[in-house]
Every structure is written in structure tokens, then in C-alpha cells.
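[Discussion] Sanity-checking designs against the backbone

I'm trying to build intuition for which residues belong where. Below is a C-alpha cell string of 431 positions. I'd appreciate it if someone posts a full sequence so I can compare it with mine line by line.
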């Protein structure tokens, strides 16, 4: 079985194979062990117990542990709770598993346990991923397939290797493995594609997997070329980004994403955000749309400017007892004279002494965090999503914040960090 290792490893790399105990990962582990000397790398194993299949999942991790001990292979072990994460973050089990798995991979790299993690994604996985993204209506980036080398940290040596070649290698070398029964459960979206849809397609197009891999290679080259052209239309400064006009729509859509990333918005944008920005190209100077994480896009003559809109000037402490105009909204902070018998549920009240003197009233910013009553800190964007605050209203919301810590959101909530308790001396109401 030929495996292309070009560009994946540096001399002396400590490479941890993401080892579930299944056929694919066991094959990858043994291939890398066989080539470790010629590649000048040290091969380790990394196992993540997902907490999904009870005893079966634990037994699979035990199999990995015993195999590594027998072969003298160093093992990095993690245990996560996919079911809990799935419920708390409203993700499918597939999504939660992938999220937690990659968090473990990057933790192992960041903590110095290894230099890279090798996963056993192969040609069939790549085809499945391309088809999955196509059916979801992905843009061209989704058709580029799985990255062979992600940030020089996550590598996939088997991407050009077929499932049949892996099976043959396992049989020929009598390599033991375990079988994850969830791979045969077609309640999972990808499994449904793998078990039911792809076999039917292959009856008509037997070379489907190779064809989709060729498509991914072509699309990736073209995608990178279009990205380079789009970059030429974008200027990014410390706190603003500009798209020069005119700009062809195919490049403009990419330029919007580049601008958002340049301002720190790495994810969560949608086609609707891009379309709303493009609509500004047909509007007069000064027209604007609010996007996400406090970013506003504005038509400014021959360009579209992205910034955290400054119509709402930060209001600094001391702000005890006062009425303010904040953008198009009037807000107030009032000291409560009589605290006895005060019904804290009748409004938004906070302990004024718990607010740092460097705090300001401003709009939400990327990176803001909020601690809700009872504890539990999360991104402000996520908290507002939980509260079902429409996206179009979030960018102009007044908040009391110090650095990226939000102590109160006008009209919505007060943080656990600033709530009134039995030791509170100064209560203020925000309106």
C-alpha cells in the first residue's frame, strides 16, 4: 500500500496517531511505525474515550491501551462526555464528538505531548465529506474536501488511500482491531450517506470516490486563486476593514469573509450576512447594515467599510444616577434610595460597588463574555442567542463592560458578577 508522506512531517516530529482501535486508525499506526525510521519521526498514540457507548466505548479504549503497552507505544489518553456537551451546546452527537475530539488533539499539541496528530481519514471519508457538504448547499470551500495538512498540526496521510486498500493491509498483516457499532447506525447523517446513499451511487458510478477526489483537487486550486484575487480588494487595519469597489460578486462574497476574519470574527457568519453587505453596493453613501459581534458594514463612496460602529460613544464611570442618549436609545442608571422591601424581580438591579471603575457603557464586542445567574460563563454572542435576541438588534445593545467582561445588558439581564446580595450597600437600577 503506497502512502504519500510528502510535506506532512519534519525531522524529529513526535506524531500522535488518533487511535480509536478501529481498522483505519490501527492501519495508520502500523504504517507510521513501519516508516518511522525513514521519516525520522517518533510515533505515539492518542485515544479519546467519547462516553457515548458505555462499556463498549470503555472496552475499546482498554483495547488501545493494552495494544500500545504490548508494542511499547506511548499513549496519550483523554475521556470526554459527548452526550453532556451535545445537550448543553445543542449539537448533534456527531458534532459534539468532533468538537471534543479536536479539542483533545490541540490540547495534546499545545501542552507539548506531541508535535502533530495524524488522523486516519481516507479516500472514502474524503468523498463522503464532499458529498455531505454539496448536499448541504456548501460554497466551493466545502467541495475542497478534507485538508491533508491542517496548519501543519493535523495531518491525514491516508487521503489518497482507498478503504479497500486499508482492509487488504489489515488482513495481510493480521492487525487486530475493534468495531464501533455506531458506524452501522444510520440515524447519524454521515452514516446514512455511507451506508445507504453512496453504495447506490457507486452502482452507477463505481469510480465515484476517485472522481470526487479529483473534483476536490481542481476546486481547491481554483478556490485558492479566487481567494488571492479577493484579498487584493480588501484592506484591513487594526479596527476597520475596507472592500474596494467595484468588485465582482464572486470575489465580493469572499472579500466579506476575509474582512470579517480580519476583525476577529472567525465563524458564525451566514450567507444572509454576505448578501446584506452586497446590497450596500447598490445603495447610497452612508447606508449601513449591522452584522454580528458588533460589526457594522457601511457604504462609503467607492468602498464598503467594516467597523465596530462608533455612533454609540463609550460612557465612562462615574455614571451613578444619570440619563443618557445611546445611539437611538435613551438609557438611565438610577440609584435606589430605599432598599428595604425592594422587589429585585421588578427591574434590573445591580451592586454598584461590584462594577470596576474602568468599566464603560458600550455596544457588544467580539470576545465579550457574560456570567449568568447561578454561574456559568459563556460568550456574550451565545448568551444572546440563548435569550433569542434577534441578530439585527445585538450590535446596538448597551452593555456595562470592563475589558471583555460584561456586567449587565440593558433591558435584558444582570451578571452573576454584579448581582445584589446581602452585603450590597449601593443598589442601582438600569433602565
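Best answer:
Here's mine. Compare freely.
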Amino acid at each position: 500500500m503506497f502512502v504519500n508522506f510528502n510535506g506532512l512531517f519534519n525531522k524529529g516530529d513526535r506524531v500522535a496517531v488518533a487511535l480509536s482501535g478501529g481498522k483505519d486508525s490501527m492501519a495508520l499506526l502500523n504504517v507510521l511505525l513501519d516508516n518511522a525510521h525513514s521519516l525520522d519521526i517518533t510515533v505515539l498514540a492518542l485515544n479519546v474515550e467519547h462516553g457515548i457507548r458505555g462499556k463498549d466505548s470503555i472496552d475499546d479504549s482498554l483495547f488501545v491501551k493494552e495494544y500500545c503497552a504490548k508494542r511499547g507505544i506511548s499513549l496519550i489518553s483523554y475521556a470526554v462526555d459527548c452526550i453532556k456537551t451535545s445537550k448543553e451546546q445543542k449539537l448533534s452527537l456527531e458534532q459534539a464528538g468532533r468538537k471534543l475530539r479536536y479539542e483533545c488533539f490541540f490540547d495534546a499539541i499545545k501542552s507539548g505531548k506531541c508535535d502533530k496528530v495524524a488522523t486516519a481519514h481516507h479516500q472514502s471519508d474524503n468523498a463522503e465529506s464532499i458529498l455531505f457538504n454539496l448536499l448541504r448547499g456548501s460554497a466551493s470551500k466545502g467541495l475542497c474536501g478534507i485538508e491533508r495538512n491542517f496548519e501543519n498540526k493535523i495531518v491525514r496521510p491516508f487521503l489518497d488511500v482507498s478503504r479497500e486498500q486499508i482492509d487488504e493491509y489489515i488482513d495481510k498483516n493480521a492487525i487486530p482491531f475493534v468495531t464501533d457499532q455506531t458506524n452501522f447506525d444510520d440515524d447519524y447523517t454521515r452514516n446514512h450517506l455511507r451506508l445507504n446513499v453512496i453504495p447506490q451511487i457507486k452502482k452507477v458510478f463505481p469510480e465515484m470516490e476517485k472522481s470526487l477526489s479529483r473534483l476536490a483537487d481542481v476546486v481547491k486550486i481554483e478556490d485558492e486563486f479566487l481567494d488571492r484575487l479577493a484579498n487584493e480588494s480588501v484592506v484591513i487595519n487594526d479596527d476597520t476593514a475596507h472592500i474596494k469597489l467595484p468588485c465582482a460578486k464572486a470575489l465580493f462574497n469572499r472579500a466579506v469573509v476575509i474582512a470579517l476574519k480580519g476583525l476577529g470574527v472567525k465563524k458564525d457568519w451566514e450567507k444572509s450576512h454576505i448578501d446584506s453587505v452586497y446590497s450596500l453596493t447598490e445603495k447610497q453613501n452612508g447606508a449601513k447594515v449591522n452584522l454580528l459581534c458588533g460589526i457594522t458594514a457601511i457604504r462609503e463612496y467607492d468602498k464598503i467599510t467594516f467597523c465596530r460602529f462608533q455612533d454609540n460613544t463609550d460612557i465612562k464611570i462615574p455614571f451613578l444616577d444619570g440619563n443618557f442618549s445611546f445611539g437611538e436609545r435613551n438609557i438611565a442608571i438610577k440609584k435606589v434610595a430605599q432598599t428595604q422591601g425592594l422587589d429585585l424581580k421588578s427591574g434590573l438591579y445591580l451592586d454598584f460597588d461590584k462594577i470596576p471603575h474602568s468599566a464603560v457603557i458600550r455596544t457588544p464586542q467580539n470576545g465579550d463574555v457574560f456570567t449568568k445567574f447561578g454561574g456559568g460563563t459563556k460568550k456574550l454572542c451565545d448568551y444572546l442567542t440563548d435569550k433569542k435576541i434577534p441578530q439585527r438588534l445585538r450590535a446596538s445593545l448597551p452593555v456595562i463592560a470592563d475589558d471583555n467582561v460584561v456586567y449587565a445588558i440593558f433591558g435584558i439581564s444582570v451578571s452573576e458578577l454584579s448581582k445584589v446580595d446581602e452585603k450590597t450597600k449601593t443598589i442601582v437600577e438600569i433602565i
